[in-house]
Amino acid sequence: MWWYFLRRVLQMIPVFFGATLLIYFMVFALPGDPIRALFGDHPPAQSVIDTLRHRYHLDQPFIVQYWYYITGLLRGDFGTTYSGQRVIDVMKQAFPITARLAVLALLFEAVAGIVVGLISGLRKGKIFDGVALVVSLILISVPVLVTGFVLQFLLGVKWHVINPSVSPGAPTQQLILPAIVLATVSFAYIVRLTRASVSENMSADFVRTATAKGLTRTRVVTVHILRNSLIPVITYLGVDIGNLMVGAIVTEGIFNIHGVGGTVYQAVTRGEGPTVVSFVAVMVLIFMAANLLVDLLYAVLDPRIRYAK
Amino acid sequence: MPSNDMTATHYVAPLDETPLVAVDRVDESAKTRSAWTDAWDSLRTSPMFWISAVLIVLILLVAIVPQLFTHTSPTLGCDLDFSNASPRAGHPLGFTRQGCDVYARVIYGTRASLTVGILATVIFALVGLIIGAVAGYYGGWLDAVVSRLGDIFFSVPSVLGAIVLMSVLPFRNATTVALVLAVFTWPQAARIVRGAVVLAKNSDYVLSAKALGVSRFKILLRHVVPNSIAPLIVLATVSLGSFIVAEATLSFLGIGLPPSVMSWGNDISQAQASIRTAPMSLFYPAVALSITVLAFLMLGDVVRDALDPKARANR
């Protein structure tokens, strides 16, 4: 078990460096001279340029520049925004909000998705299943962007059920609707995933054995069918952290939430490249960490995987 | 096994008097059936397939000849007097903030959205196919390098990566958006092709081709690739929808197609400013977007069922 953990963590290291190198390369190896761009039409003296180049390590080879960037990143130095705030300070304010939003969304999609998917899978071919399939297909094809605007307009502007824009502190009860919006697509995927996996497990030998040895239906369903059907769902939840972060950019933009997504949204629309990059780099790291966590969880849930290698 | 008593036991089945020719006879008049004919037969009978196919053909038609569907120009004749005006004769869906006809803009916006979707899918599938096939077929260090490289690109959520790349690119058009979307998604295609190729390359027909002296590269092209392309087709169909959504998301953020290009994403992005007073100019492009995505998702679903007999039996 521990060997598996260790191996997975070790495998992460090259991917981590590769991914940060990729992001760094995209931003800093592109055409254009950042120092000259600072001065516009009147280029300064060559000595000024050289000094600035030296200060920002631009006279060093690419890989050395990357080294400065990555060590800065590891020390928590993410640079500053255009308005002079340190990116790390903005993150400290933004992350708790987005974390609450993401947890709400994950809770909603996991609980509702698994319940609907389970019922659907157990009653394959019945009316409930048919409705669930059609509704989930529609939900998957309506982008978060659209769901967000439509619900904001209907509930917020037209019927005044909620406040169309979340207040600055983002109290949790105001985050419920944005969280549901954020989770819709994933909810639909989880319904379909759970349904497929439940209906497959229903005809598995171990379920027949469990029924044959006289276990109650409830016990067969909850312990034997559900537990085994949850494995792909949990993997999906891990991958979904990535979708949620992208969705958060849109959702937080729509509902005016000042979380990580909202900050990225504003930085993108204002054209603040460096801020976008620092935030996205951190989001990628979170995504990778979540994937690692899910892989480890996977090994705990399914003993077959542990001993496979 | 009683090895000392060889004469007493028959280890060979009793002789069958049927001549070999009769056993091996193949009904030559029967049409040869490939996996593709089987798939087509199952597709033909599925109503979902026809619904999605008709929808997609219609959407393609709108994208190619928008003039067929509206006589109103989406850009000329916009009148600020009609800013956010409600529907009236000749303008069934009302007007945008700039006073342009919403229906015409939805119709004309199809092309850009679909172009990005199709272009991204083609690049995604081609790159994935080539890289996945080469990695799976030749194996060894090439496979290791390519797979690790894929891991790195895969570790960046595709739209997040696209946001970074698009926000620093000096120029933006349909091709760059499609390329950027493909950059962070190709590992998905490559993985799926690689898996299928690894399975196919050890099969009997590859072995017999090898025995006949067919060159390695020719085997890859003639036998391995055609037999491992099915999962990629399914993935590509489903991905087309998500590429269209991704384009809309990027355009919504203002870093997708330039604002001058008519696309659903741009129209949604421009309509959000006046959503409280005129929600409908946001609603209609959104509906068009969703229907398109739905059509490709449905097609992907039925194609998967048709190409994967195991899933069909399970249903």
UniProtKB/TrEMBL annotation, chain A:
It comes from Gryllotalpicola kribbensis. The chain crosses the membrane at residues 12-30, 97-119, 131-155, 175-193, 233-255, 275-301. The keyword Transmembrane helix applies. Keywords: Cell membrane, Membrane, Transmembrane, Transmembrane helix, Transport. Belongs to the binding-protein-dependent transport system permease family. Signal peptide: none annotated. It is a multi-pass membrane protein. This is ABC transporter permease.
